[in-house]
Structure formats: structure tokens, C-alpha cells
Amino acid sequence: MAICFARFRRRLPFTLSSARRVRYFSLSASPIPPEEPTPDPRFLRHNSPDAIPLLDHSPFLRFPRVRLTTLPSSIRVITQSAPSSASHTASVGVWIDAGSRFEAPGTNGTAHFLEHMIFKGTRCRSARSLEEEIENMGARLNAYTSREQTTFFADVQSKDLPEAIDVLSDILQNSKFPDHAIKRERGVILREMEEVQGQVDEVIFDHLHAAAFQGHPLGDTILGPEENIRRISRVDLQQYISTHYTGPRMVVSAAGAVNHDEIVNMVGKLFTNFSTDPTTADQLVDANPAVFTGSEVRVEDNGMPLAHFALAFKGSSWTDSNSIPLMVIQSLLGSWNRSIGVGNCSGSQLARRVGTNDLAESIMAFNTNYRDTGLLGVYSIAMPNCLHDLSCVLMEEIRRLAFQVSEAEVTRARSQLKSALLLHIDGSTAVAENNGRQMLTYGRVVPFAELFARIDAVDAAAVMETARNFVINKDVALAAMGPIQELPEHGWFRSQTAA
């Protein structure tokens, strides 16, 4: 789902043979979301590892109605109101089908640079007046850039929604990008780059993308290289906006104490200067598809106390029919951290083996989706002398999912996955983000009753079939940092996938 497991921002097609499974798993786009989905009987099939029958709980998953309006400019406005909210707060943002993946050759870093510059003054507001206006409302204005999306959003009191929408429309349409601000932000971003270099989990996944998608923009970092940051100009920023900030690629999403018709009217009046170029992100992806590469990036550093490595297989796109089974597989592999003190009793067999045998400081399965591909794997942190044994256990457990999985394991993993999805939408900010990102990735918001039915349709046979098609005899990408002399070679990991 778009709300889940797209883990890293800088801030990750084979079709099942059974026609029944294809119909049930596929999250293909549909222009009109169903308002009151009929619960599928399979939704009620497994409610606990013991399959104890419970009452139909789908009514609890019927959240407030999602409303969608497409303006003549092709900007989509989606709202989910909660008028009973005691706090009377709301969140509104603009989700744009544009990220570092769509940068022109030689301009990697522009999308993130633009995120910084968008708050530095417009033709109507200076940078200072913009900051004061936000502070006077007691609001929070923020943004983030990922490889495929850019977002600008505000959390406000509901009475201040008109002003927040006016601010968002102004910064996206009227930013001036003064030279002195560009110069200052170069320094800010370069310092940010230095900070990121100290965050090994960020760096390891940048290396993993570079290994998995060699020579493709999806393998580039979101910040961009230092030489690009030093030469990005106003022209680059304006060119990126005019090319990618277009009506068909924008979604305005609001949640909380909001009124749909009022939001539509405000957006229609204020968001008037965006290009209506019909080129979609899907068309750009089709013109330059990502190709998964089996390779590795190793950075040996004996000064680091622990070794970090991430292993990944090619995953699925957001709308691929295998995306739901792969989410269940991620849940099956699970995560574990020594500091939490749980391991020997974990539902994940991988976590139990790692915890019982003291093989790592932490492990974390991930499943990152993009428009045409994805990454499925595990990120591990371990003592140097544990790397070989940890690698053996890791590959054994990944291979096991292709041949020997119990229904009890899968039931537990489904329950954990559903809980994670629900916990991810706590608050109006999370709801607005969930809806905005799903509109970009699926073309609709998938109701939770429907999503849970799709998850509950994944049984042990489906997990094993999916694992065989994504793991067995498949290439791997590897990124490793630290004292990694005892980490097996890339060829060894590849050999462990053989049937």
C-alpha cells in the first residue's frame, strides 16, 4: 500500500497463474473508488492463529467517506472529513508525482533543492512574512522529497484552512528563488549532506539503490552529489517546476475538520497557474524504465564498531499483483532489535534464530515499491565476527519461504501487517498523506475493508509461490559498510538462491 513501507525519503511483473488470485490481489488503478465495499467472506476466514470465528469486524474499518473531485486543470482534490474531531484541527497538502527520479541528466539534487527554496519568498510574501504568518496561525508547514514524489503540507486549526491553502498555492506558483537565498541554501544542503553521511541507515540504502539500479536515476541519491548542489541555478529550479508541477500530476489532500466543497472551491480559485501538460509520471517511467542489477557496493571501514549490510531482491511495483503477498512476506521476515529484548518468542522464525543465537544487533525486513519495480530484502547490523553465520541464517530463512511455510505463520503475519497499516493512519496528517499518496500510486484510495480482504486472501501457498518467483534463482543487490571482511562475497549470496 502507498501508506506503508515506502521507508526511505530524503527526506524502496509476474502475474499469479490463477485468475482468481490475480483478480483478488491486483491493486490496479480505478478512477472511481467504491464508497461502500461489500465485505468478502474470505475477509472473515482467519481472525487468529487458532482460526477462532469472530463477529464480522469490517464495520469498524469503514472510515469517514473519502470524497474526490477533479478540477478542469486536472488537479485532483480529495478529502476525508472528521467533523466530530474534538481538536478541530485539519491537515492539507499537495502531493506531486515528481521526485529525484524525474530529474534531467546532470541535475540530480534539483527536486530536493527546490523543496528548500520553495519557502524562501514569493512575489506576495517575503521569507520572513511567510514564517510569521505560519507562526501566527500556530500552524506547521513542512515538506519532503522522495525518489518519486514531492509533498508540501500544513497542519492547522480548521478555521485557518483558507489561509493555509492560500500559502500553499502561493509558494508553489509564485516563488522567486532569489540568488542570495540560493547561495545560502547551498550551504544548508551541504551541511545536511554531512549529517546524512553520519546516518548509516540512510547511506546504506543509498548504496543499495546505486547497486540495484546502476546507471538509472532511481539509483541516484535524493540529495544529489556535491558538485550538483554547488551549481544548481534558478533556471534549473524553474525548469523542474514547469516540467513536473503540472495539474494532472498533482493531488490536493485534506483530512480532519474539513468540508469537501469548501476545499474544492478554494483550490479551484487559487491553483490556477499550473501547466495542464497531460504527460504522466507513468509515461516518463515507461520511457526510461528501471532495470534491476545484481551487484554490490562495499565500503570497508574498520573504525566502525558494527557492520551494516542490506540485501535485496527485485520487488514489485505498487500496482503489481504480487505487491500484497510481498507485504505479507516482509511481515513474515519481521524485525528484531536487541534493545527491545524480544527475540526468542518472536513470531518471526528469522527473528527467533537471530535472537537465540545472538547473531545481530538488529534486523529489519523491508519492501519498497516504485512505479515499475521495487526492492524486497533485509537490513542487518551485527558484530563483525557474526557476519558469516548471520548471512547463512538469513539466506536459509528467505529460501524457506519458497518451500515451507505454515498457515499459522501466515495468519500471524497477516494480523501484524493489518495492525501496522491501521497504526500508520493515526491523526489527520497521516490520513491526508495516506490519501494523497494512494491517489498518486493507485489512482484511488483503497478502502481498508477491501485491503484487508486482499491481505486475508494470501495463504501459505500464495506466499510460497510468490517467494519462488521473486527469490529462487534470482539476482541480489548488496550494500555493506563497516568492518565487513567476514561478510560473504556477492557470488555466495547469489548461489544461495539456486533451486
Automatic annotation (TrEMBL):
<dbReference type="GO" id="GO:0006508">
    <property type="term" value="P:proteolysis"/>
</dbReference>
<dbReference type="InterPro" id="IPR050361">
    <property type="entry name" value="MPP/UQCRC_Complex"/>
</dbReference>
<dbReference type="GO" id="GO:0046872">
    <property type="term" value="F:metal ion binding"/>
</dbReference>
<comment type="similarity">
    <text>Belongs to the peptidase M16 family.</text>
</comment>
<protein>
    <submittedName>
        <fullName>Mitochondrial-processing peptidase subunit beta, mitochondrial</fullName>
    </submittedName>
</protein>
<dbReference type="InterPro" id="IPR001431">
    <property type="entry name" value="Pept_M16_Zn_BS"/>
</dbReference>
<dbReference type="InterPro" id="IPR011765">
    <property type="entry name" value="Pept_M16_N"/>
</dbReference>
<dbReference type="InterPro" id="IPR007863">
    <property type="entry name" value="Peptidase_M16_C"/>
</dbReference>
<keyword id="KW-0496">Mitochondrion</keyword>
<feature type="domain" description="Peptidase M16 N-terminal">
    <location>
        <begin position="85"/>
        <end position="226"/>
    </location>
</feature>
<dbReference type="Pfam" id="PF00675">
    <property type="entry name" value="Peptidase_M16"/>
</dbReference>
<dbReference type="InterPro" id="IPR011249">
    <property type="entry name" value="Metalloenz_LuxS/M16"/>
</dbReference>
<feature type="domain" description="Peptidase M16 C-terminal">
    <location>
        <begin position="232"/>
        <end position="417"/>
    </location>
</feature>
<dbReference type="Pfam" id="PF05193">
    <property type="entry name" value="Peptidase_M16_C"/>
</dbReference>
<dbReference type="GO" id="GO:0005739">
    <property type="term" value="C:mitochondrion"/>
</dbReference>
<dbReference type="GO" id="GO:0004222">
    <property type="term" value="F:metalloendopeptidase activity"/>
</dbReference>
